[in-house]
Amino acid sequence: MKVLIVGSGGREHSLAEAFAKDIKKSDIYVAPGNGGIALDYKCLPLRNKEEIISWCKDNRPDLVMVGPEQYLAEGLSNSLNAEGIPCVGPSQEAAKIESSKIFAKTLMTKYHIPTASYVAFEDKDQALAYVRYMGKYPLVIKANGLAAGKGVIIAENQKQAEYAIQALENKVVVEEYLKGWEVSLFVITDGKDFKTTIFSQDHKQLGENDTGPNTGGMGAFAPVKEAESYRKQIEEQIVAPILEGLKAEGCPYKGFLYCGLMITEEGPKVLEFNCRLGDPETQAILPLLQTSFTEVCYAILNNKVSDLKLEWSPQSSVCVVLASQGYPGTFPTGFPVIINSPITSKIFFAGVENKDGQLITSGGRVLSLVALGKNLSEARRKVYQDINKVNFTGKYFRRDISLRKNKC
Fold first, then answer.
1. What is the C-alpha end-to-end distance of the chain, expressed in Å?
2. Which of 16, 21, 51, 156 sits at 20 to 30 Å (Cα–Cα) from 266?
3. pLDDT value, residue 373
4. Which residues pair with 390 in a beta bridge?
5. What keywords are annotated for this sequence in UniProt (predicted)?
6. Which of 176, 195, 213 is the last residue of a domain?
7. 15 plus 72 within the same structural domain
8. Beta carbons within 10 angstroms of residue 156's beta carbon
9. Confidence category of residue 153, pLDDT binned at 50, 70, 90
10. Which run of H or of E encompasses 255?
11. Considering the domain boundaries, does residue 80 fall inside one?
């Protein structure tokens, strides 16, 4: 069996590790991957949709797993399936659930899915006029298109709202600010049936106590026991209606659907949908999955999700991202990554490259460390002990991953 994983980050590294439980590492390819992933897996210098399709036509992988949203928004799944190459990922049309905030919000409104109230704007002048008129803050300003997890700005006042709108593209969504606590849930669906995973919780903001700008994610943990009492409500009022809505709109969803949720005093509400597995939640969840990940993927491809039985470890998982100082803004790179043994945590590489046999930093989120424990406290203790054994100039990380108080 030959598997191609598309992407270059920690999520893709963790996907490779999940597949490696079922098949030989030599049969797993990652495109383009990174210098850290290449220590264990074959990385291919495929940099765009066309190059990926060409390689797949020549090499005929048994399965393609798409990590980043950009490729799905560009229609990679459509193209591969048209060539008879099985691809785990929604169609370009269904991927609009993430690639267009306006599409997603319109769909949620139409199918009565609980979410924040919003106003969508086609140009900045209209949005600026609106926030100048509004007197109630905070407000949430979102870019309409893809923004790698960084297109959401919480504006505490008019000045911040105006700055956010100017910084984003022309089309923006201005949303009501929801109060509560966040949780993430992945949906596994073949377009007809669905199953949901354990809950995880991402820590998106750069600084401790959820301060600073939004990032692609600074860490995550799983499971989130406080969310379990909401599972049935989420599945009945959010998951089932959005999948039915997509089907009714002519774009049935097949793949992994990420639900970013806020648990409010009124109940769960949708913050966002993503058309793929999230990063870093994937790194926290997959090590706890005891069902074969390959089996999960084939259940999606073969319309057998109804028969899928998900088994999970009783342990807890904590993932902490080590980033370059300056991220998510500008930051220097090229610093050696030094790892001192022994490390019990799993390392998932992201922004690194291999230069003459030495891993050096090359991105904002450099790597993530994931530890398992019999409970969150033990997993947290293990991962933070191991962080001291991984060093590079400008290493930055949050010290409070998994300590958030989940109360409305």
1. 47
2. 156
3. 98
4. 339
5. Ligase
6. 176
7. yes
8. 11
9. confident
10. strand 255-264
11. yes
Kindly tell me the sign of the dihedral angle through the C-alpha atoms of 280, 294, 84, 189: negative
Query: pTM of the predicted model, to two decimals?
Result: 0.94
Question: What mean pLDDT is predicted for residues 160-173?
Answer: 85
**pLDDT for 240:** 98
Nearest to 171 by CA among 131, 122, 129: 122
Alpha-carbon distance values, 185 to 46, 168, 272, 389 (Å): 30, 27, 11, 31
* pLDDT tens, residue by residue, 256-296: 999 999 999 999 999 999 999 999 999 999 999 999 999 99
SS3 128: helix
CATH number, domain at 157?
A: 3.30.1490.20
> What is the DSSP annotation of 99-118?
H-HHHHHHHHHHTT--B--E
How crowded is the C-beta side of 84, counted as CA atoms within 13 Å? Answer: 4
Residue 345: what are its φ and ψ, rounded to 5°? -70, 155
**272 and 244 share a domain?**
yes
CATH of the domain at 71: 3.40.50.20
Same domain, residue pair 199 and 233:
yes
**What's the CA gap between 339 and 39, in Å, rounded?**
14
How many other CB atoms are there within 10 angstroms of residue 248's CB atom?
Answer: 12
DSSP E strands in 148-249: the ranges are 152-155, 172-176, 181-189, 194-196, 201-202, 205-207, 211-214, 219-222
**Cβ of 36: how many Cβ atoms within 10 Å?**
24
CA distance to 115, 181, 226, per residue, from 407 (Å): 18, 6, 9
Name the residue type at position 212. G
150, pLDDT greater than 70: no
- Amino acid identity at 276: R
Alpha-carbon span 103 to 99, nearest angstrom: 8
Query: Helices (H), strands (E): how many in the chain?
Result: 13, 25
Residue 172 belongs to domain spanning:
117-176
Residue 406 domain flag: no
Q: Are residue 294 and residue 223 in the same domain, yes or no?
A: yes
How far is Cα 364 from Cα 325, in angstroms, rounded to an integer?
Answer: 8
Residue in the structure block whose two tokens are 């995973």: 197
